[in-house]
Amino acid sequence: MLERITTVRPGEGTTLHLTYSDGATVHADVSRLLSEDPGRSARLADRAVFEQVKPGPRGRSVTWPGDVDLDVQVFRHEPPAFPVLARTPPPTDNPISRALRAAVQASGFSQSEVARRAGMQQPNLARLLDPAYHGHSLNSLRQLAAALGLEVEIQLKRPAPEAPRGR
Question: Which of 42, 68, 88 is the last residue before a domain boundary?
């Protein structure tokens, strides 16, 4: 489920690039939504105004100057109330991050203590434990494993076969 809009950028014409708090993105043409209200459509026909788009309060809307906004719910409709030009799902949880988080929790140490033992800043450790993070280096894994009294083991294996899809 798409949570809240964290960033919104104007694209060509009346397109918007939206990023949600869960990492999902949508690139959509909102001309149909804007045309539903002639006053709103007229105000946003000015490109300088359209480019001032930003996320609304708590990421629950897309807003422009002059009290022009679109509620986040219009972006969640299925089928969409506008043409979606591209969509990317939220990133999948990284099993490396999950394993690191479990190891840190099992250690009984605080994140700050584990980071100190690993010779890194606590925010860097938090990034390694973030399930959406996919940039782990072998060096950082070795540092963290040593701080926890563990070893790094890398395994390459064949992926599980995909289950047949029903018709």
Answer: 88
Domain span at residue 66?
Answer: 5-88
Assigned token pair, 12:
């060509």
Contacts for 163 with CB less than 8 Å, ≥ 6 apart: none
> Coil, strand, or helix at residue 70?
strand
Are 84 and 100 contained in the same domain? no
Whether the CB-CB separation of 34 and 44 falls below 8 Å is answered with yes
Query: What residue type is 106 in one-letter code?
Result: A
Are the C-beta atoms of residues 65 and 128 closer than 8 Å to each other? no
Q: What is the pLDDT of residues 121-158, one digit of tens each?
A: 999 999 999 887 878 899 999 999 999 999 999 888 88
- Torsional sign, CA 134, 76, 13, 61: negative
Contact 83, 29 (CB under 8 A): yes
For residue 58, give both structure tokens.
């708590």
Residues linked to residue 28 through DSSP beta bridges, in sequence order: 16, 84
